[in-house]
Specification:
The complex is a heterotrimer of chains A (398), B (100) and C (300). Chain B is an alpha+beta fold. Chain B has helices at residues 32-36, 69-73, 84-91, 95-98, and strands at 18-22, 42-48, 54-58, 79-83. Classes of the chains: A alpha/beta (398), B alpha+beta (100), C alpha/beta (300). At the A-C interface, strand 2, helix 3, helix 4 and strand 10 of A face strand 2, helix 2, helix 4 and helix 9 of C.
Chain lengths: 398, 100, 300
């Protein structure tokens, strides 16, 4: 007989980011995984297949990513904390029903271990080119939460955070990892179970006649129930009223869609995680996320050593985008430098929010390899000297 | 219902009797109930409901046997029958007063 | 003349099925003569006959006229996206095996866009009951052809007559591994409610196809009369064929309709297989007491 390992593998481990994400999910209380193999995310699924039975959970490999997304929504509605993992091509397939998750206000976590795209692209090499898709991938107006890990330890920690945010705000949360963070093996420290904060969804416990499935509290989040709890709820992907019944009018649609968006935007101070360094005297600020942020730290140190007043803003949370913070910083500096493994995505948000008060420089590539610290340093030097750059220029340069 | 002879146990069997209820405004005039009623006690009335459909009515003097086929077949949940003995008991009325 | 009551109308007794219906949403959206109302009626009767606890019963539907059934049932109901009712229902069932999970949707939703999920849910023998209302057409969007549209039938996307060969749904379900396969028409409302009750009671993937009239688009475009005319066609052309080979029950335009119970086999459902395997390879969880297999697997 195999040994039954505990849910929280407290201790020091040497593991890759995908496996750390799986362990983070278990530590957060995940008990359902429905997924499909795809490089470089497959290890998340494989680890969950092995570990979920040990903790009394359910692993099912669904027939495709469309099924996976729906299975995790169904499991969440049965009361379980659920998750799936994928990469670019699967992410695209999941988009319609990701929107269903947003509309039904279903807590769940989706890990995207990004790779080179578009289409089949570079399955085994890194990329960060799904960032705009994370925000706009499904149709319609909506807001979601996306966190970006930069190491296997982050993959553990931020998956726990992702579950907590998804439960608190009843919204699907993305862990936008990448092939380098996912496949890199590093030391991961898993704390004791009682030191890990776990948040559960607000549940309604009153009498059935008083329950309105989509009547929100002051935080704009409605309390939830599970199928089989006796509340006889109806939910639909159609625009609905507080009873959950279809409400086919522009007025009802406005009320619902605005609340779904404001649920995230009005709570941005609670949701957004930023790391700031050397901003007090900075003239050039590197804004970065994910594995590019990890590399940016090195570049910023090099810049400082070279005498440049360079600061660092790491976006642990890319969506909702911290517009306000960027606007504030823009007023005090000369330029932003945005390294990302794509031809310009999050940089567009930075430029938009800078509002012309600071220049915006992209350090990007089409995917397949990380940005080097020296490349970022060159861009910082160039920005510090006052050079201008068309943000998307590298896309069209030879 | 046409029988070719009187059943031998006719004295012993209590034929159920039903009271038909018609929620006129739900009806969409499909005709399933009037066509398939095994005892042919329903016909489309001359009246219109709020939507402009003719709805069914019990033929004058006809007796429903509470088979509930109309209730099951009706797509609109607008016709159903209840056993008059049970109805009377629930209303604390004599059975005879329950029927029209 | 409408029936006069000896008691005032305020005490008009409720429809016997009121408790299971969201009457606050009536009148429903279906056309006069549509088979969905009757099928819903049979479904409610089937649920009652199966003696399920309504608090622990769910229905999941997709998109289309049949998908609207979920909105009228007063149980936990989920109106999901096109073709994806089955995986959603799979998630519900596996995360909480004590639930009685039913899926009610249409022929296009379940076997066109949902085709892949259909064959896999049947293959896995997920313990659920799938009711497919087959009207041979995509009704809600105005009458396009679908995978069950009979050869030669007209639809808005087969304006010269359908030249494709349709699915035989019982055949598809049986070949994919369903443990229970039955077909009735919406005329056979008592038999279909009995089939649904049997299907619900049976562990594993149960499939009940219900042939249903779509007067507004399918019947009208193919000059087949109104809903009542189609019901009479069912009466005339249905042939009860219990135990028939699912490969032999295809329907063509104007043909007889073989109805009955075609498949009823015993095969362990997915969640039982999973639990049995784990019981063999993992020691009992030291922290928990004996958890019966029907209990919640995982819940927040």
């Amino acid at each position: 007989m195999r040994e039954r390992r505990p849910r929280v593998l407290t201790g020091e481990h040497f593991m890759n980011g995908d496996i750390a994400a799986a362990e983070g999910a278990l530590a957060a209380g995940c008990t359902f995984f429905g997924g499909y193999p795809i490089t470089p995310a497959t290890e998340v699924a494989e680890r969950m297949a092995e570990r979920l039975p040990e903790v009394g959970g359910v692993y099912i490999q669904m027939e495709d990513e469309l099924a996976s997304m729906n299975a995790i929504l169904g499991a969440s509605w049965a009361g379980a904390k659920s998750m799936s993992s994928t990469s670019g091509p699967g992410f695209s397939l999941m988009m319609e029903n990701f929107g269903l998750g947003v509309m039904l206000e279903t807590p769940c976590v989706l890990v995207n271990v990004q790779r080179g795209g578009p289409s089949t692209g570079l399955p085994t090499l890194t990329g960060q080119a799904d960032m705009m898709q994370a925000r706009w991938g499904s149709h319609g107006d909506y807001e979601i939460i996306a966190l970006c890990p930069a190491s296997p330890q982050d993959c553990f920690d931020l998956t726990v955070t992702a579950f907590n945010l998804s439960e608190k705000y009843r919204v699907p949360v993305l862990l936008m990892s990448d092939e380098v963070s996912g496949h890199m093996m590093e030391r991961v420290v898993i704390p004791p179970e009682d030191e890990i904060e776990v948040i559960d969804r607000k549940k309604f416990t009153g009498p059935r006649e008083e329950y309105l499935p989509y009547k929100a509290d002051d935080d704009l989040v409605p309390p939830m129930v599970a199928a089989g709890d006796g509340y006889r709820i109806h939910t639909t992907g159609l625009t609905h009223d507080e009873r959950g019944y279809p409400a086919m009018s522009a007025e009802a649609h406005d009320v619902l869609v605005r609340r779904l968006c404001n649920k995230i935007l009005h709570n941005i101070d609670d949701i957004a995680i930023l790391e700031e360094h050397y901003l007090d005297d900075a003239e050039v600020v590197v804004v970065s996320y994910g594995i590019s942020a990890r590399i940016s730290y090195r570049a910023v140190e090099l810049a400082r050593e070279a005498g440049i007043k360079c600061g660092m803003l790491r976006l642990v949370t890319v969506w909702p985008f911290p517009e306000q913070r960027i606007r504030e910083i823009a007023g005090n500096i000369n330029a932003f430098v945005v390294p990302e493994i794509n031809l310009g995505q999050v940089v567009l948000e930075v430029e938009r929010c800078a509002g012309g008060k600071a220049e915006t420089h992209l350090v990007g590539n089409a995917g397949g390899h990380v940005i080097l610290p020296t490349e970022i340093l060159e861009a910082v030097k160039s920005a510090a000297s006052g050079a201008r750059q068309e943000v998307r220029e590298p896309a069209y340069a030879d | 219902m046409d029988l070719w002879r009187r059943p031998l146990d006719a004295d012993k069997v209590d034929v159920p009797r039903g009271q038909v209820f018609i929620v006129a405004d739900r009806c969409k005039g499909c005709g399933f109930c009037t066509d398939f009623c095994p005892t042919d006690i329903l016909e489309m009335s001359e009246e219109f409901n709020v939507k402009g459909y003719h709805y069914p009515a019990v033929v004058e003097g006809a007796e429903c046997v509470n088979c509930k086929l109309c209730e099951l077949l009706c797509p609109e949940f607008s016709i159903y029958s209840l056993d008059i003995v049970e109805l009377a008991r629930a209303r604390e009325l004599p059975v005879a007063e329950v029927r029209a | 003349m409408p029936t006069e009551l000896a008691v005032p109308e305020e005490v008009y007794p409720d429809h016997p099925m009121s408790g299971m219906l969201r009457e606050d949403r009536f009148p429903h959206i279906w056309c006069p003569g549509c088979g969905l109302g009757t099928t819903l009626s049979g479904f409610v009767a089937g649920l009652k006959e199966a003696k399920v606890d309504p608090d622990k019963t769910c229905v999941v539907s997709g998109i289309g006229c049949a998908g609207r059934v979920a909105g009228y049932l007063a149980i936990d109901s989920f109106h999901t996206t096109h073709g994806r009712a089955l995986p959603f229902a799979t998630g519900l069932k596996l995360a909480r095996p004590e639930l009685t999970v039913t899926v009610f949707s249409g022929d296009g939703d379940l076997t066109a866009i949902g085709g892949n999920h259909f064959i896999h849910a049947a293959r896995r023998n997920i313990d659920m009951t799938v009711i497919c209302s087959n009207n041979f057409i995509y009704g809600m969007t105005g009458g396009q052809g679908g995978p069950t549209t009979p050869t030669s039938a007209h639809s808005t996307t087969t304006p010269y007559g359908c030249f494709e060969h349709p699915f035989s749904l019982p055949h598809l379900a049986a070949a994919s591994g369903a443990s229970y396969v039955a077909r009735w028409t919406s005329l056979h409302v008592r038999r279909l409610s009995k089939a649904i009750a049997e299907a619900i009671a049976k562990p594993g993937f149960s499939f009940v196809e219900i042939i249903s009239p779509c007067p507004t688009v399918y019947l009208r475009r193919n000059k087949l009369g109104d809903g009542l005319a189609m019901m009479n066609y069912f009466k005339e052309k249905s042939v009860i064929s219990h135990g028939a080979d699912p490969a032999d029950v295809g329907i063509s335009f104007g043909s007889e309709i073989k109805v009955g119970k075609f498949v009823d086999i015993d095969r362990a459902p997915h969640h039982v297989l999973m639990q049995e395997q784990l019981a063999d390879i993992l020691p009992p969880d030291a922290e928990s007491t004996d958890v019966p297999e029907d209990e919640v697997i995982a819940q927040v």
